[in-house]
Design a protein that fits this description.
The chain is of the alpha/beta class and 139 residues long. The protein has helices spanning 11-14, 34-44, 67-75, 99-108; strands at residues 23-26, 54-60, 78-89, 111-118, 123-130. It has one domain (11-130): Vaccinia Virus protein VP39 (Rossmann fold). The protein contains four helices and five strands, in the order H-E-H-E-H-E-H-E-E. A five-stranded mixed β-sheet has the order 1-2-3-5-4, sandwiched between helices. It is globular and about 40 Å long.
Length: 139
Amino acid sequence: MSERDYSHRDVVDKLGVKPGQVVAFAEEAWRIDPGLRERSVTRTGRSAGGDGVLDLVFVAADDTTDAVAALRRWKARLAPAGGIWMLSPKRGQPGYLDQRALIPAGAAAGLVDNKSCSVSDTVSAMRFVIRKKDRCTVA
């Protein structure tokens, strides 16, 4: 089976950023690209302030980040159908974080990984979500 080519899509499309969502940026290990931040906020029309519920969180992580702690911290603010994107340096970059190590970190935090994508030449991302069976429904 051949792989699909998503190179023509803007990264905010690949990351599933949609109008009206509330997004937060957590620069745990490094500064997130200002262009990504700007395009995300422009797309959503809003960014997080205070301690409200979030639809998307972008966490800049590297090999020094406690991924379980970061995922648990942001999960507490995540909307039931929201997602946490762990952005990490690609192989060969300083601070490289093998994404295979993130999978058990997500499970330890009560999350499941369900998507990964390339953000740039130097950064990749893995999305973590609350399992459907664990999502609370609001009446």
